[in-house]
Amino acid sequence: MRAATTTPALADLLSRARSRRALRRRIVMTALGLGIVAAFLVSLMVGHTFYGLDDVWNVILGHEVEGATFTVGTLRLPRATLAVAAGAAFGIAGVTFQTLLRNPLASPDIVGISSGASAAAVFAIVVLGLSGAAVSVIAVVAGLAVALLVYLLAYRHGVAGTRLILIGIGIAAMLNAVVSYLLERSSQGEYQEALRWLAGSLNGASWTATVPVVLALGVLVPVLMSHSRHLGLMQMGDDVAAALGVRVEVARIVLVVAAVALVAIATSAAGPIAFVAFLSGPIAARLVGPHGSLLVPSALTGALLVVVADFAAQWLFGTRYPVGVVTGVLGAPFLIYLLVSINRKGGSL
Amino acid sequence: MSAVISAPGSSVVVRRRSTRVRALWLVAAIVVLVGLACLSVAVGSRAVTWEEIGLGVTGHVDTIGQAAVYKRVPRTILAIVVGAALAVSGAVMQGVTRNPLADPGILGVTMGASLAVVTGIAWFGLFSVQGYIWTAIVGAGVTAVAVYAVGSLGRGGATPLKLALAGAATSAALTSLISAVVLPRGDIVEIVQSWQVGGVGGATYEPLATVAPFLVVGFVMSWGCSRWLNSMALGDEVAAGLGVKVAGARACAALGAVILAGAATAVAGPIAFVGLVVPHVCRLLVGVDHRWLIPFSAVVGACLVTTADVVGRLIAQPAEIQVGIVTAIVGAPVFIAIVRRTKVREL
């Protein structure tokens, strides 16, 4: 009798809570989307020469505007597009890894996959003299190889997250030394160039670098999205997911390959932009709350982070910094805050 | 009856023998180091004759070959002292934190020293070696305290994973900050860039003479604390029970390690993994007693950095690979091996 009276009330409460969560999620995602559009437009308008919104709009539509067609169309548009695309790629790939390995520290930039892609890209460019899509392909192959290597080295009676992370840190240190060596050897060892491949930079972004990243997003984000339900179930444990009808091994391979490919392609265009893959997921989780898939919110967070950081890096200080320096300086305190809170409460996003 | 008598006797025999073994290892390591030092003076991108080596070492610079040899001598000495300092620093840090992954590079201490020096050069017109060293030591000390504080929060205290992560995060942040300080200053980029990767190439006698007292003080402090480090390896409570003032001993040993790491970084740039790898190898050979481990680590560390320097000169002829790059490529696999060997529970 009593149960009968309380159940509808409870159901009502639950559904209201659920709709409140859905509302929060919608609001956050809309705000992130609007933020990206606004930052994108501002970074097209502002520079050494200011162009109004109408000029920018005309350039985007393909009309000829004196001065603006070159400055906005050839210089700023590919750069801003690459910022959004690379940020989204890092964000969504990072959160895929973090969810799959159930550890916020297990993002591709911490476990060495970004460094592997970076080292391979430098090798392809400096030693093999390649450019364009070939560099991306080599970076993807190297990223997958490093992922496999870290996984195999961490495998000892099963893979423990902590061991995987520490081994990733070791591999990353070694690969960064390889990058330094290759850059020094190439005698084009300019500090800016080194920073691009160690910390990430959008200097010299062009359509040839940007298009592969956009294409990869177009192909691989739907793949990740189609597996987002599986990802959510696998977070509860492989056995639970298998019991609920997920083919765990297949799903895991698809997710890892897609995420590594995104990271590697974005890295081969913009370098391993520091901390974006690592930070987007936890920031997104704090914004939208703990329920529901984090894939899209993380992609949006990553894109917004990189666009804003690149704009700040170029224009807020006396010097035009590479974006990776700004994300590194801003991201590290947040990483330490996350470490502290993980240490206090145990790990979750 | 005989068993009762022989038991203590045999243990004495064992101890004596192991002391002899340790002494033998130490002598062997010193012999190897002398050999490596000779090799380091003799080998390089320019082939020289025996005659030129003899004349160059004694200070003649009449031919290019002699001049090359003459320049290799301070470089070799620098490699030896930097290697020794970093290895002892690593051994002490591993003892103080009871953490197999402690290393001035991994814990971000050398990066802290770097940032302090770079900031000093860029903003405060720092130019003397003396100034570099003091600044580096302060930077190293602040970073060491901060990383240890972050790493020891929460359950289980300073576990290897937490310390390594706090160190990696801090290193990454400090690297970005170094870039942020250096990039606007085209005039200092070159100085910083050559120094940043960790190199002994441009060594001269003057900085060596300046850094020597700091290294001696750091070494004496570290070695002087070795008995306390031995006790603290059993746990803080046991050490306190054995009459060690744990907090003071820890501070003294850590200060010695920080002075060594800071001074080494000030003259050779940040070099990673020497402090990690060497003490582990040494423990296999001479055991865990810090009284032996610290001097033995110094000799083996000197061997490692000298070898890294020689290898870096040989494999990239006519160019050179910086010592820091070679040690990272050699050291990272050892780091991974240690991680694999450690039980997950202890991470």
TrEMBL record, chain A:
Q: State the protein's name.
A: ABC transporter permease
Keywords, ordered alphabetically: Cell membrane, Membrane, Transmembrane, Transmembrane helix, Transport
Task: Name where it's found.
Answer: Cell membrane
Q: Which Pfam families match?
A: FecCD
Membrane topology is:
Multi-pass membrane protein
Q: Does the keyword Repressor apply?
A: no
**Which species is the source of this protein?**
Demequina litorisediminis
- Name the InterPro entries on file: ABC_BtuC-like, ABC_transptr_permease_BtuC
User: Which positions are tagged coiled coil?
Assistant: none
Question: Which domain of life does the protein's organism represent?
Answer: Bacteria
SUPFAM superfamilies per the UniProt record, alphabetical = ABC transporter involved in vitamin B12 uptake, BtuC (SSF81345)
The similarity comment for this entry is: Belongs to the binding-protein-dependent transport system permease family. FecCD subfamily.
What residues form the membrane-spanning segments?
27-51, 80-101, 122-152, 164-183, 204-225, 253-280, 292-315, 321-340
UniProtKB/TrEMBL annotation, chain B:
The protein's UniProt keywords, in alphabetical order, are: Cell membrane, Membrane, Transmembrane, Transmembrane helix, Transport
In its keyword annotation, does this UniProt entry include Transmembrane helix? yes
* CDD domains assigned: TM_ABC_iron-siderophores_like
Q: Which Gene3D superfamilies does this entry report, sorted A to Z?
A: ABC transporter involved in vitamin B12 uptake, BtuC
For this protein, the parts annotated as crossing the membrane are 23-43, 76-93, 105-126, 132-151, 163-183, 203-226, 293-315, 321-339
Membrane topology (UniProt): Multi-pass membrane protein
Q: Which domain of life is it from?
A: Bacteria
**Which SUPFAM superfamilies does the entry link to?**
ABC transporter involved in vitamin B12 uptake, BtuC
Primary location recorded for the protein, binned into one broad class = membrane
Protein family membership: Belongs to the binding-protein-dependent transport system permease family. FecCD subfamily.
Note the PANTHER family from the entry.
Answer: FE(3+) DICITRATE TRANSPORT SYSTEM PERMEASE PROTEIN FECC-RELATED, FERRIC ENTEROBACTIN TRANSPORT SYSTEM PERMEASE PROTEIN
Q: Where in the cell is it found?
A: Cell membrane
Q: What is this protein called?
A: ABC transporter permease
